[in-house]
Amino acid sequence: MIDVLSLFTIGFAFFVVAVSPGPATLSNATIAMSKGRKIALVYGLGLSSGMFLWGVVAVSGMGAVLQSSVYVLMVLKVLGGLYLLRLAYVSFKASLVIEDQENLAQIQACSYRKWFMRGFILNSSNPKTVVAWMAALSMGMQGHNDVMSLILALLTCMLVGYLVNIMYSLVFSVKGIMGMYQKCRRWVERAAAGMFALAGFGLLKSALNRS
């Protein structure tokens, strides 16, 4: 069975991947600054659950199959790219809206379930996540292919993923940071839109190149 050092190696490798700036962490930070801690935590839970989906795919061995299945992977990348472009449009549109009490009321009316699903869809629509999983697992799984080792590795990465999303939700929902966001909200939303657009076009380009 896998040892503690190997689990630590896998967990650290996954932490580096999970904490790096990307569509998921960017959206988590933006939502924490704009919507507050509770909504950000629910959204982060959705992100982590979407990440868990790809973790199961990677651990079960389907990740390698998916990587070798050119057309299936291409379709998934197209769908993921289009969803990221939709997020870019939504973020840019939000930057043009003047926030008032009516808008804030609409935000509160949006159920936690919807915020959870938004996070889940974002991470589960990006097939590149399985590559990150496989890279992290390969760091410490040499010679440990039994079921228990795979389960422990999966749980370790999931714990790290949840902690990273919680960290982003807590740090960026601090009142001082939220106040700074309110002062430059439009520019933050437009920067987020640009990041989502780049990520979306990157996935579409990758799909067209069949990589």
UniProtKB/TrEMBL annotation:
Q: Does the keyword Chloroplast apply?
A: no
Q: Where in the cell is it found?
A: Cell membrane
Q: Name one GO cellular component term.
A: plasma membrane
Segments passing through the bilayer: 39-59, 71-92, 147-171, 191-208
Taxonomy, superkingdom: Bacteria
GO MF annotations, alphabetized: amino acid transmembrane transporter activity
Query: Sorted alphabetically, which Pfam families does this protein's record hold?
Result: LysE
Q: What membrane topology does the UniProt entry give?
A: Multi-pass membrane protein
Q: Which residues form a coiled coil?
A: none
Q: What protein does this entry describe?
A: Lysine exporter protein (LYSE/YGGA)
Q: Which organism is it from?
A: Marinomonas posidonica (strain CECT 7376 / NCIMB 14433 / IVIA-Po-181)
